[in-house]
Design brief:
- It is built from 14 helices and 13 strands.
- It is an alpha/beta fold.
- Strand 4 and strand 5 form a beta hairpin.
- The C terminus is likely disordered.
Length: 348
Amino acid sequence: MTTFDARADLSDLTTTAERVRRSVENVIEGKPEVVRIALTVLLAEGHLLIEDVPGVGKTMLSKALARSIDCSVRRIQFTPDLLPSDITGVSVFDQQQRDFEFKPGAIFAQIVVGDEINRASPKTQSALLESMEERQVTVDGTSYELPRPFMVIATQNPVEMEGTYPLPEAQRDRFTARVSIGYPSPEAELKMLDVHGGVSPLDDLQPVAHADDIVKLIDAVRQVHVAEPVRRYAVALVGATRNHPDLRLGASPRATLHLVRAARASAALDGREYVLPDDVQSLASAVLAHRLLPTAQAQLNRRTPEQVVTEIVQRVPVPDPAAGNGAAGWPQRPAGHPQAMPDVPRSL
């Protein structure tokens, strides 16, 4: 019988995650909160959508995270003529074997970087749906498992509309979080001129963690305890988006799962064995905003989904810490106790 040593697992997690964080920040200057969300999504077994204007480092961030981990990496440049089979793979008839042989596509990697995902047609975008949710690809009636860890990091430009196709709601809902890098501060931009002026820092970036290490960290994150009041709080936040007057489409139950998974990963990055309401609050905008559709009136009033999520976080009551009995007032699983919380379902 194996025993669960949460403190040892979390110690390894924070040490490895710190190495990855420093590696990525050698390339992305002055954006520690964006790097943290990227790490959080990776450890939550999710997928990341990076949405921002050109030239702020969207592709650089995704490449830096991918190169910091010793695992298989594929980059897909999404274009209007990209076919679904270019992503998933295709069955080719082998003349010698007199049978069809499957040729894996670009999706068969542990970290897949999709550059300018909104430039591909909706048919091609839909080729990612099964792989992102179920970690498998089905071609000609046969399913093929994808490797672990598996993460899609996609970028898109929200201001360039010519030759682009907006991501459908089903596609956006499969991304755990969306981040915007934003323009750097003058100091960070000045430092960037020194660091990036001669050669790209990506050229010297070496892996600081192995794929097997990341799998172990993901398993450790699953052990992080989420008390019932915190789970109810997450459900209340997501539920409030479904009847808000400024939204015509609220967040799905999948969003609740992603929010709890991300909160577990965030708590683990802080070295905690339990989730606090603060973890849920800090991730609410990144996890929920890209799934929401504002009403026409809200758009006329220039109300963004991020503003609505902020309002909901301020309005929904935070659970009372006195309800718990663990550290910081929240119940936590005793050391050596087996998994007390059921695994979050992988899909809906």
